[in-house]
Amino acid sequence: MAEDVYPVPAEWQAEAGVDASAYEAMYKAARSDPDAFWLEQAGRLHWTKAPTKAGEWSFDEANFGIRWFADGTLNVAANCIDRHLAERADTVAIIWEPDAPDEEPKRFTYAQLHAEVCRFANVLKANGAKKGDRVTIYLPMIPEAAFAILACARIGAIHSVVFGGFSPDAIAGRIEDCDSTLVVTADEGRRGGKRVPLKANVDAAVARASSVNRVIVVKATGADVAIGERDRWYHEEAAKVAADCPAEPMNAEDPLFILYTSGSTGKPKGVLHTSGGYLLWAAYTHELAFDYKPGTVFWCAADVGWVTGHSYILYGPLANGATTLMYEGLPNWPDASRIWQVVDRHQVHTLFTAPTALRALMKEGDAPVHATSRASLKLLGSVGEPINPEAWRWYHDVAGDGRCPVVDAWWQTETGGIMIAPLPGATALKPGSATRPLPGVLPQLVDEKGEVLHGATSGNLVIAGSWPGQMRTVWGDHERFFQTYFTTYPGKYFTGDGCRRDEDGYYWITGRVDDVINVSGHRMGTAEVESALVLHPRVAEAAVVGMPHDVKGQGIYAYVTLNAGDEGSAELREELRQHVRREIGPIATPDALQFAPGLPKTRSGKIMRRILRKIAEGEVSSLGDTSTLADPAVVDDLVANRAG
Ligand code: WTA
């Protein structure tokens, strides 16, 4: 099979920060003397006390632990703001583009960002937040989201950002898990012309989560919302506090943030990242993977509620003194030209978005793209899920007019930043491949037994050693951290992804091999959706699997067993879909829901998901061995009544 290879364009080769030979040299240096390599890289940051140690870690049970730069001291917000003031006070740090195209964008220079963040930090302090406290942030994509996040970092409070699409129950669970005392929200959010009742959702969440004693409310839309005893308007508080706020000196290993993410079992996990290693990883990967150069506008079109927004809207670009674009709205609203109009309006150099957005745009044809110039675009990035070669080519050929390399970046909430990705000035591209690991990343493919596989092959993707951006623990459950990631293949970090490596050493991520589904680039645990379904009084049992979806990548397919005697109906099916939406949020709404009188179980009562996945995929002729089922006849019924 002839393979498509896109060589490094001549102009990238000529001007690359890191070219092919520099990449090889860096990769070798990071592997042969990681301490020296990382202590040198640590010089990217401004330390109040420089570290003398790099990584100190063990993935083995006996002395399990991960620390980086542990004797160093720094403040993350000062690294993202203050240290740029001497040379870049008047450089725009954040461009904010509103939801509706007829509204004016806002721009904040580094000096203005400094003032806004100091003020927000003083409001947090005046309302009781201090170093080590957990602050939950439930905000739309407005500049205050950036201010609030950086304000936490400035005073050493640990932020836990909850995506604005999550329901009151999902917020409450996240508040309770980390005992947040303070919540920052807004009256309402806006997206694609629709309003999201953020304050009302927080009220419902806080009614249940008793740790919260203060809610700070940003006036975003001016909607009429209830302001109770616990609540304070941000603008009123901001008027009362001093303008300057010193940055709290933090140990490199002091926590920076918690971000909840779905796993294969149980409730979402609070992934904990610390200050020094995380920030270094965000800055290092932002510069390398995007060959970032000062003076260019960087647009990561994610939401700050996800790790991509943390690392590539805020921390990475700001640590590098870049101009980062924050967009409130949707790529295809009011129409499919919008994303490209934003590129033109702000002269975006690098666009970093998700395959699901590209597939949705692709459906609208090329005309909405051609209606715009995109002359400023030099680099394209893709993240969150495997990109199908068709979407890759459309991105490259149509959106990028064939002149912009595509950086397909593989990583996870747990990894803090990009792990496997081409460097635009160093790596020839193959559509659908995340290509090669960044210097310092040691990927391996292993078989079911944990044997390391060599050469061109497929297996499960593990990382053989630590890197600075690695998560440090699951909040409140260090044992779960160890059990989840380090026991499947002892001594290695297991990613949960399957992967192929080709003869050129390129990595091709094939998707999750566990019970996590990736819906529009968002992680969803099947167990979470199942728990939501069984909360409904008419549901006896539920099993959820992923199914192929041409825009979302994967959709959610639910099999539901009702209480004895209940036959279900089209109305109930819709009611259950809405029920999940209310319990978790719109992103968890099942795409297909099938009433199943019985589920395929082994004699010991374990649901055979392999069979459910095949049926959901429509692969009913290859169900494999069903003879070990307690009641093989249930399979015939499931096949006969497939949803869809
Ligand atoms: C998937 C998002 C293929 C993968 C940054 C991973 C990808 C999960 C890619 C993490 C990519 C992310 N190619 N798959 N370029 N990027 N994934 O934690 O399955 O929301 O394990 O982090 O997304 O999702 P998370």
TrEMBL record:
Cofactor(s) of this protein: Mg(2+)
SUPFAM superfamilies, alphabetized: Acetyl-CoA synthetase-like
Residues binding CoA: 191-194, 308, 332, 520, 581
Catalysed transformations (reactions): acetate + ATP + CoA = acetyl-CoA + AMP + diphosphate
The AMP-binding enzyme C-terminal domain, residue ranges: 528-606
Listed GO biological process terms: acetyl-CoA biosynthetic process from acetate
Residues covered by the Acetyl-coenzyme A synthetase N-terminal domain: 23-80
GO MF term (any one): ATP binding
Post-translational modification (record): Acetylated. Deacetylation by the SIR2-homolog deacetylase activates the enzyme.
GO cellular component: cytosol
EC number, as in UniProt: 6.2.1.1
Every AMP-dependent synthetase/ligase domain range: 82-467
Pfam families in alphabetical order: ACAS_N, AMP-binding, AMP-binding_C
Sorted UniProt keywords: Acetylation, ATP-binding, Ligase, Magnesium, Metal-binding, Nucleotide-binding
Residues with N6-acetyllysine modification: 606
Residues at which ATP binds: 384-386, 497, 512, 523
Function in brief: Catalyzes the conversion of acetate into acetyl-CoA (AcCoA), an essential intermediate at the junction of anabolic and catabolic pathways. AcsA undergoes a two-step reaction. In the first half reaction, AcsA combines acetate with ATP to form acetyl-adenylate (AcAMP) intermediate. In the second half reaction, it can then transfer the acetyl group from AcAMP to the sulfhydryl group of CoA, forming the product AcCoA.
Family: Belongs to the ATP-dependent AMP-binding enzyme family.
Name of the featured protein: Acetyl-coenzyme A synthetase
